[in-house]
Amino acid sequence: MKKKNKLLFLSTLLVGALVTGCGSSGGANTGQTSSGNTNTPAPSTESNPNPGLTVLKIATQSPLSGAQSLEGEGIKLGAQMAVADRAEEFKKLGFEIQLFPQDDQADPKIGVTNAEMLIADQDVFAVIGHYNTGVAIPSSVKYEDGKLAMISPANTGVELTEAGKKSVNRLVARNDQIAPAAAKYAKDKLGATNVFLTHDKTAYGQGLTDEVRKAFKELGVNELGYEGITAGEKDYSAIVNQLVARKPDLVFFGGMYAEMGIIAKQARDKGYTGKFMGGEGLESADIYKIAGPAAEGIVYATVVSDIRSQEEGKKWIDRFKESFKKDPGAFSPFAYDATLVALNGIEKAIQENGGKKPTREQVMNAIRGTNEFSGLFTKVTFDDKGDNKHSQVYIYQYGKEKAEFMGEAGK
């Protein structure tokens, strides 16, 4: 898990997220802004309820079951809000916009299988996802073959946009942006002079840790250890015993909140008193259920800022809660903006195709051409790789009950 002065959202449900303003309209390359809507009806995901309209589907790919379903569901619901907010505008153009959510189960094989299914459905014109970089990378190969545009609201792995795929885009910062910021914060603000590095052996986790490793070396921070763990286990004594014995000032973990929660709890139980730090994979209120009091003090660098301090953000959070009876996930706001970007590209392609149903390639090119699009939480301009020129990095620290916004990294 990747903007100046743009508000992104604190990914902890703990803080809530999202706003009452919605739906953007107009061309993708004209500095468009989002507009407000007050109700969020659930968009249709079945056959066309309006036979006179042409169906256009936007799919989501995220884990809707399993250990990471909390954040995966948040991505789906963020996209659902955006689809609902712009549905009426598309009806006026003669199109029925439908959300088409898919459960990738955080599994690369399932992600690829889903991608093949989406490509076979000629009504699907964009994919919002994935949550896991390790699922996004192999799936993106299929999207590229099918000229099906993908916009990730969460993936930070460098490799995702380094392959030159025209179909692949992301709103968030990359690991090679996050890592230097995290390492500098660890040294300057947390006083780390020596560190122990560990990761979950995934494309995201190991990729981030390797980038952080390079950054710490450049800063002159001493490395006491570098180890990988297997995600999904319940006992990490092998790593924890090393932490207790070597006593690093800071442990940096590249991985997800579930494993971090277990490691932190077991390490505290055995007397480790140093600090813990990671990336946006640590963002989830569920870390408190896993780590208990040991969650307090864990620091993470992420790609979304605290939107609660802004009136628009507060309204969006309230609207999300009213619509879905739950707090938004860490990446619900980015999923919302990613979907607005996709819809903006689809609308532009329709206009350029004389008001008719566009081709996937037309939509793919329109989305890649997004320039100075003002979403609700971030501005978006894609470079020639599909990275967002406005992405930022922010720091949070878990308090007793919720994550607290520490500020923009480097400031």
Query: What is the straight-line distance between the termini?
Result: 21 Å
Proportion in β-strands: 15-25%
Morphology: elongated
Helical content class: 25-40%
Protein name: Branched-chain amino acid ABC transporter substrate-binding protein
Pfam family, one: Peripla_BP_6
Family: Belongs to the leucine-binding protein family.
InterPro entries: Leu-bd, Leu_Ile_Val-bd, Peripla_BP_I
Could you describe the 3D structure shown?
With 411 residues, the protein is of the alpha/beta class. It has two domains: 21-173 and 306-389, Response regulator (Rossmann fold), CATH 3.40.50.2300; 176-302, Response regulator (Rossmann fold). It has eleven helices and 16 strands. The strands form four sheets. Strands 9-8-10-11-12-15-16 form a seven-stranded mixed β-sheet, with helices on both faces. The protein has a five-stranded parallel β-sheet with strand order 4-3-5-6-7. β3, α1 (69-92) and β4 form a beta-alpha-beta unit. α4 (175-188) crosses α5. Belongs to the leucine-binding protein family. This is Branched-chain amino acid ABC transporter substrate-binding protein. Pfam families: Peripla_BP_6. It comes from Brevibacillus ruminantium.
